[in-house]
Design brief:
Layout: E1 16-17, E2 22-23, E3 31-32, E4 36-37, E5 44-49, E6 55-59, E7 64-66, E8 76-78, E9 90-93, E10 99-106, E11 111-119, E12 127-128, E13 133-136, E14 141-142, E15 145-146, E16 154-158, E17 172-173, E18 179-186, E19 192-202, E20 206-209, E21 213-216, E22 221-228, E23 231-234, E24 242-245, E25 251-258, E26 263-273
Parallel strand pairs: 4-11, 13-19, 21-26
Antiparallel strand pairs: 1-2, 3-5, 5-9, 6-8, 6-10, 7-9, 10-11, 12-15, 14-17, 16-18, 18-19, 20-22, 22-24, 23-25, 25-26
Length: 296
């Protein structure tokens, strides 16, 4: 058998492709893509096929382009006729809301209409309610997030380093170093949004102080502190590493060392005891040669 050559034809006049026994006047039958769900901003192919060289018209034209990139105006005949057995008009749909597209297939005497719905779920929002923050080494921090959808949302924090649970909206973080967490929120259609937050970990200042001390009332003593990574302040207001104190009652003195975010506080107890009371009795007079307490 020889291949038929398809001429430029008037689609609205009877014409028979005799070599392949196709009749333009036959009832068109459409095979087409099923309904589909896409994420907002995504695209999907809408495809249809028939066993006859026919005229195809898609509507609405909003968010439709050809595979070559041309914008489709409504109504538009796409791929008017074909040389092969099957015609496959394909368009690209990029709707921003759920849209039902109709495809009308026509020949000289008959029409067939098919409908394809492209579902577009509400656009996801991924919101971290705890902005960039700083914590002290050894502290934990509660991350909080939310989204705008009612249907199930799936949370994924990355990396999962130092998180108690990387798949919940509010994990507790206990990082030892600076870190940036990225949150991905997705839905049942695999649509997703990402956002991120950073945690700065500040090194705690160190502080060691003198041991508790006991002094007698009226005495003074010196309190000592060794610090690094911050500025020292005593409860007396002194900012040097040593301070002289002379309490008259037992007193707890504090030393605190601070940097931009963190602090370390220690106490020194100075116990004050009263001097013992000594009494030798009243003054007495004695005669020469007698001792105290001699009776004459």
């Amino acid at each position: 058998a020889t291949s038929a050559t398809v001429p430029n034809v008037n689609l609205f006049s009877p014409w028979t492709l005799a070599n392949n026994n196709f009749l333009l006047n036959a009832q068109p039958i459409i095979n087409h893509s099923p309904d589909v769900t896409i994420c907002i901003g995504a695209s999907t192919l809408l495809a249809a096929s028939t066993p006859f060289p026919l005229a195809y018209s898609w509507s609405p034209s909003v968010s439709l382009t050809t595979t070559g990139g041309a914008v489709i105006a409504a109504p538009t005949i796409v791929n008017a006729y074909y040389t092969g057995i099957l015609g496959n008009p394909i368009v690209i749909a990029t709707p921003t809301t759920t849209t039902t597209y109709s495809l009308v297939v026509s020949n000289n005497s008959s029409l067939d209409t098919a409908y394809i719905t492209v579902h577009v779920p509400i656009e996801l929002a991924a919101i971290i309610q705890t902005p960039n923050t700083s914590i002290c080494s050894g502290e934990s921090f509660q991350l909080l997030s939310k989204t705008n959808i009612i249907t199930p949302a799936y949370y994924s924090w990355s990396p999962n380093t130092a998180l108690d649970n990387a798949t919940v909206f509010n994990p507790k973080a206990n990082p030892q170093n600076d870190i940036t967490y990225t949150l991905t929120i997705s839905d049942d259609w695999a649509c997703y949004k990402t956002t991120s937050t950073s945690i700065h970990v500040e090194i705690n200042p160190t502080l060691t102080v003198s041991a508790p001390i006991t002094i007698c009332n009226g005495m003074d003593t010196v309190l000592m502190a060794n610090v690094s990574g911050g500025t020292l302040t005593w409860s007396t207001g002194t900012t040097t590493n040593s301070v002289f104190v002379q309490p008259n009652i037992t007193t707890n003195y504090s030393a605190i060392v601070e940097n931009s975010y963190c602090s370390n506080k220690q106490f020194i107890k100075v116990t004050v005891i009263d001097l013992p009371t000594v009494s030798a009795g009243a003054d007495q007079f004695i005669c020469v040669g007698l001792s105290s307490g001699t009776t004459i």
